[in-house]
Design a protein that fits this description.
The protein has one domain (about 1-80). The protein contains seven helices and three strands. It has helices at about 10-15, 20, 25-30, 40-50, 65-70, 80-85, 95-104, and strands at about 1-5, 35-40, 75. A three-stranded parallel β-sheet has the order 1-2-3.
Length: about 100
Amino acid sequence: MSPVLLDTHIALAFFGRSFQQHFPLIHELLDVGDVYGFVSAATLWEIAIKTRLGKLDIAMPLSDLPEAIASVGLEILGIEVSHVLHILDPEPPTRDPFDRLLLA
């Protein structure tokens, strides 16, 4: 079984009920059962920040987010010190701290 880490906009599609429509190939991979989906704690952090700033409405209390993730068959991947300190080589084109943490 292979793990796959979903980024924030793909994880959000699960909650907007548009995942299968917008990401059919990823849906098929997860549906077959050979791939197991993860959502990083960094994704939850990004969602929480954007929600609190009024830039995102997830239509549920933030405290319900972990349970909602589990209910669609995804697992939350924690952030470890090694992820934060990891040197990305080659240097990715993004400077977004959430994207860089996901890549690490």
